Amino acid sequence: MTNAFAKHIFFGFLKQIVYVRKPFVSESCDKDSPLQTSKTMLDNEDIIHTVGRLAEKEVSFYLVFIRITNKVYIRSTYPRFTYDKILEAYYNRLMSIEGESIHIDQYDEETLTIISKKASRHKFTFLSLLDGAAKGLKVGDHQVSLENKYGMTESPRDGRRPQRLMQNAESAMNTVVGNHYKYKVFTEEFSKRNIRKFNIQSNLHEAITQKQFHVVFQPQISLEDKRITGFEVLLRWDSPILGTVAPNEFIPIAEQYGYIDALTNQVLDDILLVIPYLEGELDVFRIAINISPILFEDQGWLQRFVKRIRDKNIAHDRIEIEVTESFLIGDFKQSIRAIDYLHRKGFTIAIDDFGSGFSSLRYLKTLPIDKLKIDKSFIYSLSRNDRNICRSIIDLGHNIGATVLG
């Protein structure tokens, strides 16, 4: 079979309603290599069969899942069929990688799988070669790069069962989709984290309904006169099944699976119960609550939030809204609208963990910010550089009329 014919079979037009089953044979494989096997495009059972054959023969190989993240952009920007031709050009590049015996399949319309007998190259070197092959692909008058995310597993190190190996590679790939990393290599530690995440997700609904969460009020103290000026509300989860679950574990999962609204409402319930008691003990104080960026996107939620506090006859200036820098660098216009709305209603606005993200004078100039909270990474060690940074943040905060908290 000619190389051109193989390319045609593998990268047939994806818009066809009926896929014709035809064999694919990689001409770059050695004659005796088990990688030289008849394959069918878009047939995942055949991919599993190939992985299984290699595992049975105890061949050491890499399995890589590649997600093409800019497929929609390419199809909407360039002429019809350009995407398919780009895939063909990428295929040519991959098959020309010297010293590698490579087998390529299409897992779905956005995902490729690559099986490679382990050569002398390190796994990250191999992944870099795959990514380099995706850059500057020429199709007619166009030069286009594929923006890819890669997940890799290795056999026999990570197992021999085909389904398990494919799950390893796909889950590794999925962890880098949506963030700034390109590669993820499966490890047992990664597997444990995935299991932990699944267990947290599975127990989250019951934890909310059974009120396993509780809040802790961390005092904020003025350095000038040592008096308490407010409290930061911290959410804690002591699970009878999972033990203590840290906020940086359960908050992202709650945001991902739609539980963050219920969690925030529980926190607000506790705050509204405590504030009347504190008003009898302290003259001046604020309660700081961190609100998820997801909730800020919902104007209806913001209005309900304000109404709940008003209905309890609690002054809005008792509540301090904490937002993170990552929220501010997203939809900046929506950020301005949400923060302006809350500030006009009388709430104090604080930037949490200032200096940990993409600190920008733009939002300090534009947004009504009342407080800057220095990121704890500058506080813990207090090296000479950290002290200088803290002094600069303090001066910056005071110059814009904001309080600074460490």
Task: Explain briefly what this protein structure is.
Strand 2 and strand 3 form a beta hairpin. The termini are far apart.
Can you put this structure into words, describing what you see?
This protein is of the alpha/beta class and 406 residues long. Helix content is 44%, strand content 22%. It contains 16 helices and 15 strands. It has helices at 3-10, 44-56, 71-77, 82-95, 123-132, 162-176, 188-209, 247-256, 260-279, 293-296, 299-311, 325-328, 332-344, 361-366, 377-380, 384-399; strands at residues 61-68, 102-108, 111-117, 137-139, 142-144, 148-155, 183-185, 213-221, 228-239, 243-245, 286-290, 319-324, 348-354, 371-374, 403-405. Strands 8, 9, 10, 11, 12, 13, 14 and 15 form an eight-stranded mixed sheet that branches. Strands 2-3-1-6-7 form a five-stranded mixed sheet, with helices on both faces. A two-stranded antiparallel sheet has the order 4-5. The longest helix is centred in the middle third of the chain and has 22 residues, at 188-209. The model is unreliable at 1-43 (pLDDT under 50).
